[in-house]
Sequence to fold (109 residues):
Amino acid sequence: MKLVVAVVQDKDSHRLSAALVKADLRATKLASTGGFLKAGNTTFLIGVEDSRVDEVLRIIKDNCKARKQLVSPVSPLGGNVESYVPYPVEVQVGGATVFVLPIEQFQQF
Fold:
């Protein structure tokens, strides 16, 4: 058994959740916040049999797309003003960061 931990952008969470339900996969959703953009994310915890890991990864890949977004950098407070960029910059957001962990034991009560 494996635990798939997927951190996805909030914009993709509803689509991914619906796809997991359609595939008869259970998941726990946790609200989370990204460290770089300080934007909302959703972290999915998905326990699956080893034989279904590739299916889960495919579903995540199909439903979580990377996109470009303009962000306004936060001004430095007491930091290095020379390196501060005062205009919005385009960054890639979205997609999914996925970890697959081995599970020693699973119990459901």
